[in-house]
Amino acid sequence: MLINRQVLGYRLLLIIFIACLLGHQPDINAKPKKKHVSLQLRWYHQFQFAGYYAALEQGFYRQAGLEVSLIEGGLDRPYAIDQVLESNAEFGVSTSGLVLEYLRGKPVITLATIFQKSPATWLMRAESKIKSPSDFAGKSVNLFEDSTELKAMFAYDGIPLKKIQFQQNGEGIEELIAGSSSVIEAYVTNEPFILKQKGIKYRLIQPINYGIDFYGDNLFTHWQFLQDNPKIVKAFVEASLKGWEYAFKHEEEIIQLIHQRYAPQKSLEHLRYEAEEMRKLILPELIQLGHINPNRWQFIAKTFKKLGLTDQDSDLKSFIYQPKASVNFQKYIVPGILLVIFSLVGWFVVGWYIKINRRLKLALKEIKTLQGIIPICSYCHSILDEEGDWSELEAYMYKHSDATFSHGICPKCVPGIMKEISDLKTN
Hints:
Elements: H1 2-22, E1 35-40, H2 50-57, H3 60-63, E2 66-71, H4 80-85, E3 91-94, H5 97-103, E4 108-113, E5 120-125, E6 140-142, H6 148-156, E7 165-167, H7 173-178, E8 183-187, H8 191-197, E9 202-205, E10 218-222, H9 223-228, H10 230-249, H11 251-262, H12 268-282, H13 294-306, H14 333-370, E11 383-384, E12 390-391, H15 393-400, H16 414-426
Parallel strand pairs: 1-2, 1-3, 6-7
Antiparallel strand pairs: 3-10, 4-10, 5-8, 5-9, 11-12
Helix pairs in contact: 1-14, 2-10, 11-12
């Protein structure tokens, strides 16, 4: 019985040992094979995308097994959402309008939020007659397709969108400087600096002052690309956020980098202004870079529906990226092997101890049974037992030990026995 248990134990441990060796499963944390991907930026090269430049130049993407190309955006460039949906780029940067496209059935998913507050604003000269959202009625203004928070401001203030003519063919800040446009869409982190440098007084009308507190730039991808390449997406997001962290810790270094390699037309003072204003919107010291608040997205989605920009319910389960938690089994292989080895040794020692202990108990039992003075008849060799009865030697030994007897004749007794047999024959 003991041997069977030991064999069963050894077999069980052998199974565990094999499982440890074969248990190395694919890990989402593992680096993907080197893969080339592209990121479509929303605007021209500037500090607005500092984290991605840092991730590229510091080798964070390369360390993650990725080769990354950054595609510049701008007035004459395709929208990031269209680029990703048409597979011209794997990743893109967009505004809170991303969730509106999702509610309209577009397969997009947000991966990380960079701007916790939107920098989008209406910018006009100080002498402009436009002083509130209601003054836009009857006006023609240029607006990017995904600048939904600027549209939401009008609807939230009770101004029908059909009363405003939205166009997408303007030249931005140049029109405002030349006086050919009275108001333009802008970022508080960028265009106001240009007007300050030229001595032009200006005024801002910001959505946040009218109840529209949306996210700003968001990193996103195509839903199907995420399903097909979860490791690549995870690696890209992590490397990008690492880049943003580096950019804010080494701000001046990244400013110099952008000026030298990406945006030489922008002065260092302009880039420093942009970095300073961005800190107020990204809040890197207070909020974790890339943080996504599902409730905030829910509010944004409900706002769009309330304003009549969509009629879809705001079920965002497939919109917000949630990387799967995983366990790296590889790091447990060596400890697992050691555990199995020690367990096998332990089982062997315990089995050996039980076996020896059993034999010792049996030996002690025999010794205890036969020790002391045993009364025996000197004539017939019967033994007086503890109950006062005389028993034959064989019966006594059988009762008090595991010994058995086999009968024979020793060489010393053979002559005597043969004489007795001879005498019996003679008589």
